[in-house]
Amino acid sequence: xxxxxxxxxxxxxxxxxxxxxxxxxxxxxxxxxxxxxxxxxxxxxxxxxxxxxxxxxxxxxxxxxxxxxxxxxxxxxxxxxxxxxxxxxxxxxxxxxxxxxxxxxxxxxxxxxxxxxxxxxxxxxxxxxxxxxxxxxxxxxxxxxxxxxxxxxxxxxxxxxxxxxxxxxxxxxxxxxxxxxxxxxxxxxxxxxxxxxxxxxxxxxxxxxxxxxxxxxxxxxxxxxxxxxxxxxxxxxxxxxxxxxxxxxxxxxxxxxxxxxxxxxxxxxxxxxxxxxxxxxxxxxxxxxxxxxxxxxxxxxxxxxxxxxxxxxxxxxxxxxxxxxxxxxxxxxxx
Length: 335
Ligand code: P6P
Known about the structure:
Elements: H1 8-15, H2 23-46, E1 55-59, E2 65-67, H3 68-83, E3 87-92, E4 99-100, E5 112-120, E6 131-139, E7 162-168, E8 172-177, E9 183-188, E10 193-198, E11 209-211, H4 222-232, E12 241-242, H5 248-258, E13 260-264, H6 277-290, E14 294-296, E15 316-319, H7 321-331
Parallel strand pairs: 3-5, 11-12, 11-13
Antiparallel strand pairs: 1-2, 3-4, 5-6, 6-7, 7-8, 8-9, 9-10, 13-15, 14-15
Helix pairs in contact: 2-3, 4-7
């Protein structure tokens, strides 16, 4: 049973036997991510003071203007994983192709691949709004020792062995699951240790917060427009409260604690929406389901989607199960 104030390190060791594969490697993997997150947290908190805010004039594979902290965060997570020789491959939002990570024998000798969005919501950095990291871990499907391949990354979300996020906000919190529930650890920056602050996180049965960028309203499918009007109607348990930070990890985290739904649907200009399946939606969907919530593309379970491309986008409805059910009901009227 998790004890409040248990450190993340103690928690990982105490629970590693729950992990059906080689526990030592997963523990080292999670430890590598939490250390990298501390380094990113330090820079995010100082972003206004040192010259790493603002764009570097380049764009990433998404065509999005790269903020300096994006690049820094990507380097910290990637190098942290490479130096510890824990994974055989990494896919990141900031790199067009996956990275093949060879061990000391010059072979892809490790079992796990990591997919990561190093700094989601980075457009918020220079306006002092919280941002986050999202990660997803799979066991490779190709033979250990052989070259890592694209198929190792294009696995459906229900194959994830672990997933998590870090919110760099008013406090820094590390939330993750290995398929045995969801636990949150808050960083004590004074001593650089994460402590269990949110054991066994679960979505509330009901929710009253909806998170969507209503600026896109005219471009939404009719089902989404109807669901938004449903959220605003004066009847039963509504109108809901609208809260949208522009940083999905922050909206997701608040909705899991207070009860709500986050959605970013298709629009007329983006038929698959904006969010990335592999390193944004799948990890949050894994966490959502482990916390009694639900994650859908409006018609089906996110975790059942068979990926076809590394950076593919997907419409995303995620949060309190009854709220996602209702959103699906509206979407499916216009299948
Ligand atoms: P829009 C950040 O870029 C992000 O991926 C999510 O974190 C956030 O919810 C969304 O995009 C914001 O996009 O179109 O509302 O500005």
